[in-house]
Amino acid sequence: MARKSASRASSAARSAAPKVGFVSLGCPKALVDSERILTQLRAEGYETTPSYDAADVVVVNTCGFIDDAVAESLDAIGEAMAENGRVVVTGCLGAGPKSQVVRDKFPDLLSISGPQDYVSVMNAVHTAVPPAHDPFFDLLPPQGIKLTPKHYAYLKISEGCNHKCSFCIIPSMRGKLASRPVADVLTEAEKLVRSGVQELLVISQDTSAYGADLKYAKGQWRDREYEARMLGLCDGLSQLTGRDGQRPWIRLHYVYPYPHVDHIMPLMAERKVLPYLDVPFQHASPKVLKAMKRPAAAEDTLERIRAWRSICPDLAIRSTFIVGFPGETEQDFELLLDWLDEAQLDRVGCFRYSPVDGATANALPGQVPDEVKEERYHRFMEKQQAISAAKLQQKVGQTIEVLVDEIHDDAASVGRSWADAPEIDGKVYIQGLGEGSKLKAVPGQRIQVKVVDADEYDLFARLV
């Protein structure tokens, strides 16, 4: 699902600095691209503004993965063109076959470029309005501009993907796997933690493949060498400590269930890395997975999950699935429901299959009628809701650590446990953290709470 956020970064530049409007759409990987562009704009003396009228130029970072995201991106571009007229488009909709749709619909765009093409964006902005020669750019925070709350940040470890999943066009938009050197990633992570970040969310298109394109080259960080592979990166991240002396939360996303993921489990069992894995299983039927051309399709994922939990019993697993994929029979779907019963995943999202322009799955036989997709979607969600509700009920009475996201005086404050990633998972609602509380908690603080109730997705707690 696309996400829209207009930046309101404060500026140390003089009041005469040129102003840029900025709209950021899409996934966390696109959000990191936006943060990097905004950091470069700030360093060159540009100010950002939430007003189309005040902006000298508007940058729209688009999402182009599914039809709803494309529609939202086109709407955002159209709004920027209507309200301002000087628009630079970047991101996933600016690459691959869909870029021509943008060019045809908006021929007067100043520029259009693909994801992580920061040079093209800056060149287009420079052409529209020259940069200010701002003597204060050294006042930039070392971690750059962030669009997330101060206490958590996305840490992107690679670009692109080497897989050829039949329903996906991300490789055509973001290219092949391009991992960042391990020392660069660890240095960025250290800067973020020193600035007060309490949670690092490690993201990529395939975190399990990190470093494969670098042939797992080692990098020097602090006084040790670390290998550019998943285990080496996690080992380095586990050495971080914040200003308060606490180890930050390290959360892993987009992890494929390869055998070497087993090696991370001891770090999770020791809480050096959060016992949380975001694994895009997508389906359970071998026939459907083969049609999807999924990596690790031949793996016995149930056995792998059992092995992980034998080492780290507290492991929380989230995943996403597609129902109604071309060729999916009722037998395939029933197999998926049985797999859910066995897997007992903690957090699950489900999508009804929809064609994506340029995806090879569009040509597959056995297209599933929309009414069947809808019926299977609701059966799937009913099954998973029951699993989730039962698992959360098991936590009632437990004392858990929670990272506070929001403090409310007139309602329950909001936090998250190790099992909850921001925006996609559940929440922990905490009574008694507002005005008059004995504990003067602030967002980004980690506290101990006792779970007193639960529903299908969320926990309800009070201070210990």
TrEMBL record:
Pfam families: Radical_SAM (PF04055), TRAM_2 (PF18693), UPF0004 (PF00919). Belongs to the methylthiotransferase family. RimO subfamily. Its EC number is 2.8.4.4. Its cofactor is [4Fe-4S] cluster. One of its GO terms (molecular function) is protein methylthiotransferase activity. Catalyzes the methylthiolation of an aspartic acid residue of ribosomal protein uS12. Residues 147-390 form the Radical SAM core domain. One of its GO terms (cellular component) is cytosol. [4Fe-4S] cluster 1 binds at C27, C63, C92. [4Fe-4S] cluster 2 binds at C161, C165, C168. Residues 393-464 form the TRAM domain. One of its GO terms (biological process) is tRNA modification. It is found in: Cytoplasm. It catalyses: L-aspartate(89)-[ribosomal protein uS12]-hydrogen + (sulfur carrier)-SH + AH2 + 2 S-adenosyl-L-methionine = 3-methylsulfanyl-L-aspartate(89)-[ribosomal protein uS12]-hydrogen + (sulfur carrier)-H + 5'-deoxyadenosine + L-methionine + A + S-adenosyl-L-homocysteine + 2 H(+). This is Ribosomal protein uS12 methylthiotransferase RimO. It is an enzyme of class 2 (transferase). Residues 18-130 form the MTTase N-terminal domain. Binds 2 [4Fe-4S] clusters. One cluster is coordinated with 3 cysteines and an exchangeable S-adenosyl-L-methionine. Keywords: 4Fe-4S, Cytoplasm, Iron, Iron-sulfur, Metal-binding, Ribonucleoprotein, Ribosomal protein, S-adenosyl-L-methionine, Transferase.
